[in-house]
């Protein structure tokens, strides 16, 4: 499942600290419910691209394993408040202190040793891979054996992580959001009440959230496009005037997770 939030989702945050905390809640929501991609979508003619890039950077930083952050992110003023981001504590963020045979760890290629790549896997330890991958590449490696050095392990590259490994961040225009998805669910107060039927996502699914300036139905009108998918109100009888995007993420994804994991609700696949 992927989720999408608008480029102006931080527009009503009063200060920089509040913006970072808000992004932290969004990152936590994506991780709790195992989102594979977190999309920042753009609309209208007044996109603040500098703000979009800052959002992308902070969300990528939050999803990156802590032991790799200093290797992958240079000193950047935009990250000065990154310490306010809450830890995600997903499997990729807690590598073993002492790697064992069979462990899968994410690392970054730091240097070559002849034909081999030395992949930094945290704790001043390295995995030795029999192929010269580009310096700086992020690799998922599986420990195969120890070597005569306590800080180096023989390993192989694996393509698929053994568990949820975090989300990737994309930036896309609103008009292209639905491309490539089997199920698209738009959320908003003006949508059909979920009480009339809880959908059970089928296939590749995208859940789209509105923002503080406009709901998804208003954004669709601004962009001159028709919503291709379900438009649902997941919080009928809400007690507040508005529901913040980060609040909606938890409310909506909790219900969809229940429907998917517990196999309840009506299987839904959108023909576009």
UniProtKB/TrEMBL annotation:
Domain of life: Archaea
Entry-linked InterPro entries: Alpha/beta_knot_MTases, NA-bd_OB-fold, Put_MeTrfase-C9orf114-like, tRNA_m1G_MTases_N
SUPFAM superfamilies on file: alpha/beta knot
Pfam families assigned to the protein according to its UniProt record, in alphabetical order: Methyltrn_RNA_3
Protein name: RNA-binding protein
